[in-house]
Automatic annotation (TrEMBL), chain A:
Annotated organism of origin: Paenibacillus soyae
Residue stretches of biased makeup (Polar residues): 33-42
Database matches in SUPFAM superfamilies: Periplasmic binding protein-like II
Signal peptide start-end: 1-23
Name of the protein in question: Extracellular solute-binding protein
Automatic annotation (TrEMBL), chain B:
Keywords: Membrane, Transmembrane, Transmembrane helix, Transport
Keyword Transcription among record annotations: no
Native species: Paenibacillus soyae
BP GO annotations: transmembrane transport
InterPro entries per UniProt: MetI-like (IPR000515), MetI-like_sf (IPR035906)
Taxonomic placement: Bacteria, Bacillati, Bacillota, Bacilli, Bacillales
UniProt name for this protein: Sugar ABC transporter permease
Primary site of residence: membrane
Domain of life (superkingdom): Bacteria
Length: 520, 317
């Protein structure tokens, strides 16, 4: 009896040990093995039958971020292969963890021939590797391709590394930021579009307190924001206050935005909005999904961000509140200020060509030829809008997306975000819109260009910024939230700025200033 | 054959080795069964350890381990002089301590309680209900908490407000981070943790209880004098293993809870490794941190094991 018991004991102990150990192995955040989720390759690997052609189709493997949940089906890919005489393998990875995947693939030399990055910040971080000669310099070849040579010189300049071009860019309008608000609420309360930041504040207040939906319940809030200081409301608001974009020039020095008084003003503004309860209280922990839900459920009435979001916001909002109306607006200034809006450097992502995957010039040229074809209206439209008649129709010379937006999103969105150039250069159709707010938005986006606040450091370089910029930014991001939540006062925030300077920020300032003066 | 080998006169050393061979031969099936496990450890635990050398290098992915420059203990120096380091280590240790004090005893208590339940169906129902959360991912647990705790219409804050209280900023305040963490851990893992204890309790000889009852011991006496001593070694083994996991506080869980407001108390070694290593591509530095973490874990396990042995228990090795 006794023996049996101790045997049982031993067995259970062994089981525990193995359980414990296997649990350990599951959570090794520290090592470089790609996580199982990251190593699952794109699902669209099945090559489709290419029609017999004289020239062998070029085989190209492409890695890119995916902004929707599901990997798109092969509908578009099959057409694309026919048009470009290629055999494509698309490896889609979720955008949320794309940087991780990039780093892991890069570390193991597994980047495919065509590698999309995620955004400008990733690009900045890859500069070191680019300088280390890991990617093909494509500048000299562009001239050989009729369509590629149409790409905008000014934007190409923004993407150069040490004066050499390594990448193709995915073009985006300079400044899409602005305000989206509930027009029906404003009308109910007799408010017009806000002209100043004070009007905006008053609107948030009225939307919260004056029962804008007239249902007799205190169930509304002004602004819906999220935990993103850049693409959320904060940066756009800071532009309204006249804060520079990332860096500004003051007394011949390049200083970061948070050393300007306008940045503090913006924080104060957000703080008073939150303290008064005119925005969602937990915005520092709110995801984009939750933020969007606040607006779409008819709870919040203001959304500050990309004005192009208005379509999806509106479409989902009317499902909940059939009588809802929305409008967009851009020109908001602080009293006595002039209108300005932060701008991106004309692109939101780039494509790189790793040397580890592309063996020689001939192969590179074949791949560039594919991108050259992507810059023709036929291919650009296919990738951006889908198949005519299925995903879009042409109305008045513009592309009108099909009403089945789920289908369009599922089948086209994955490819849409990878089209290089912009409508002016790749000849893709402009979008047709029937929602007034969106038509306005497109108009405002063009207006914004004239008032764009550019980042003076976009064409400049700072080694410290490349290496530590992001890590240091965390200090400021945390301090900014803490200030807005009242955990830090002005002195505390300034102390955080000092910390930033000490840990390498001062070097960033010096390096950028030197580069700035040298470029003048 | 074996028998003929036995009587040979040989120096003691070779005698023991031949004895060893014999024993291995005798238990050959057991050894064969162990092969997959051994292979697993070699392939997935020992071979990757080679990668640890990059913590002593200025590792450049495209150069590989052989091509990167050696920098000695540079990364460790950086780690120990990093102003954030002390804070991160303290956070990690505090969360670990809380885990040990608040979480560890709960499955034991729960198992003892379940063991006393008489109606079998009720017992099984409760048992199933308390382990269901284990099968939900942290993302779900954290999202549920978010929905319940948010100040923008979360049910708990609404209740507090209804009873005239001041809304509490659970999600964004440093004070609430740790309680929130530990409650979530208990919620998800407590039920699961009872399985092993229940198994150990089931193995106790019922005769002991009968004898105790005849001697007039009540329920609490029985628990105290029979159940607890009987599962003591299981508790000790689990405790030692738990201590080995010191720094495994659940990266995913903490990462999901982190935000700008609670980073001061919430950043632990794992999340720091993730941001520094995978997001910012500082492979060598994050390997150094991971190395350091495992090292602390090893020391703690050895200490705990030593302590267990001194207290007359068996320990894990």
């Amino acid at each position: 009896m006794k023996k049996k018991k101790s045997m049982l004991m031993l067995l259970s102990a062994m089981m525990i040990v193995t359980l414990g150990l296997s649990a350990c192995s599951g959570n090794n955040g520290g090592n470089n093995e790609p996580s199982p989720a990251a190593s699952n390759a794109g699902a669209s690997e099945k090559p489709s039958e290419a029609p017999p052609e004289e020239e062998e189709p070029t085989e190209i493997t492409i890695m890119l971020p995916l902004n929707i949940a599901e990997t798109p089906p092969d509908t578009i890919k099959t057409e694309l292969e026919k048009l470009t005489n290629t055999k494509l393998t698309y490896q889609f990875f979720p955008a949320d963890t794309y940087e991780e995947k990039l780093n892991a693939s890069f570390a193991t030399g597994a980047l495919p021939q065509v590698t999309y990055l995620k955004n400008q910040a990733t690009f900045i971080r890859f500069k070191e590797a680019i300088r280390d000669n890991q990617f093909w310099e494509i500048g000299p070849y562009l001239g050989e391709f009729e369509n590629l040579s149409k790409m905008k010189e000014s934007i190409l300049n923004n993407t150069k590394v040490d004066g050499k071009l390594y990448s193709l860019y995915i073009g985006r309008p300079l400044a899409r930021q602005g305000l989206i608000y509930r027009k029906d609420w404003a009308d109910n309360l007799g408010l017009s579009a806000p002209q100043t930041t004070e009007d905006l504040f008053a609107m948030a207040k009225a939307f919260t307190e004056d029962d804008p939906d007239k249902d007799g319940n205190d169930n509304t809030v002004g602004l819906a924001d999220r935990n993103d200081l850049i693409y959320g409301a904060f940066k756009t608001l800071s532009s309204f206050f006249g804060t520079p974009n990332n860096f500004g020039v003051k007394d011949g020095q390049i200083l970061p935005e948070f050393m300007f008084p306008e940045y503090i003003e913006t924080m104060d503004y957000m703080k008073s909005l939150r303290d008064a309860g005119y925005m969602n209280q937990d915005f520092a922990a709110t995801s984009k999904t939750d933020q969007v839900n606040l607006f779409q459920s008819g709870e919040a009435g203001l959304y500050i961000g990309s004005m192009q979001d208005v379509n999806s916001l509106y479409n989902n909002l009317v499902k909940n509140v059939p009588t809802a109306e929305v409008a967009t607006h851009n020109k908001i200034v602080k009293p006595g200020g002039t209108f300005g809006i932060w701008a991106i450097p004309g692109y939101n992502n780039v494509v790189l060509f790793p040397k580890s995957a592309i063996k020689d010039e001939a192969e590179l040229k074949k791949i560039l030829a594919f991108f050259d074809k992507m810059m023709t209206p036929e291919v650009a439209n296919l990738m951006y809008w889908g198949i005519e008649g299925t995903h879009y129709s042409v109305v008045e010379g513009q592309a009108k997306a099909s009403d089945d937006s789920d289908k369009v999103e599922r089948e086209v969105k994955g490819y849409k975000d990878s089209v290089i150039g912009e409508p002016e250069t790749n000849g893709q159709l402009q979008g047709f819109h029937d929602l007034q707010a969106r038509i306005d938005a497109e108009k405002f986006i063009i207006e914004n260009e004239a008032a764009a606040i550019h980042d003076p450091t976009a064409p400049l370089d700072s080694v410290t910024f490349t290496e530590q910029g992001q890590e240091l930014q965390k200090i400021i991001t945390d301090a900014t939230y803490q200030y807005m939540y009242g955990q830090l006062d002005k002195a505390g925030f300034e102390k955080a700025v000092e910390t930033w300077k000490e840990r390498g920020g001062q070097k960033i300032i010096d390096e950028f200033t030197a580069a700035y003066n040298a470029s003048k | 054959m074996e028998l003929t080998a036995e009587p040979q006169i040989a120096p003691p050393k070779s005698k023991t080795s031949s004895e060893l061979k014999k024993r291995i031969w005798k238990n050959k099936l057991l050894y064969v069964m162990a092969i997959p496990g051994i292979l697993f450890f070699i392939l997935f635990k020992y071979v990757p350890m080679y990668g640890l050398v990059i913590s002593l290098q200025d590792f450049k992915p495209y150069e590989g381990i052989s091509g990167s420059d050696w920098v000695g203990f540079e990364h460790f120096k950086r780690l120990f002089t990093e102003p954030e380091f002390l804070n991160i280590l303290t956070n990690t240790l505090i969360l670990f301590g809380m885990n040990l004090i608040f979480f560890f005893p709960i499955p034991i208590i729960l198992a003892l309680m379940l063991n006393e339940v008489r109606i079998a169906i009720f017992k099984r129902l409760v048992q199933t209900l308390v382990y269901i959360p284990h099968f939900m991912s942290w993302v779900i647990i954290v999202s549920i908490s978010y929905v319940m705790l948010t100040m923008d219409g979360g049910i708990i804050n609404e209740l507090i407000a209804k009873f005239g209280g001041e809304k509490v900023n659970f999600l964004l305040s440093p004070e609430w981070f740790r309680p929130m963490y530990i409650v979530q851990v208990i919620w998800r893992e407590a039920g699961w943790g009872t399985i092993i204890y229940l198994a150990a309790i089931a193995a106790i000889d019922p005769g002991l209880y009968e004898a105790a009852r005849i001697d007039g011991a009540g329920r609490f006496r029985q628990i105290w004098h029979i159940t607890l001593p009987a599962i003591r070694s299981v508790i000790i083994v689990l405790l030692i293993l738990k201590i080995g996991d010191v720094l495994e506080l659940g990266f995913e869980h903490v990462y999901l809870l982190l935000n700008s407001m609670n980073r001061g108390v919430g950043e632990i070694i794992d999340t720091y490794v993730y941001t520094a290593g995978l997001q910012q591509g500082q492979f060598s530095y994050s390997t150094a941190i991971g190395f350091f973490k495992s090292f602390i874990g090893l020391i703690l396990v050895m200490a705990a094991n030593w302590l267990a042995k001194r207290m007359g228990e068996e320990g894990v090795y």
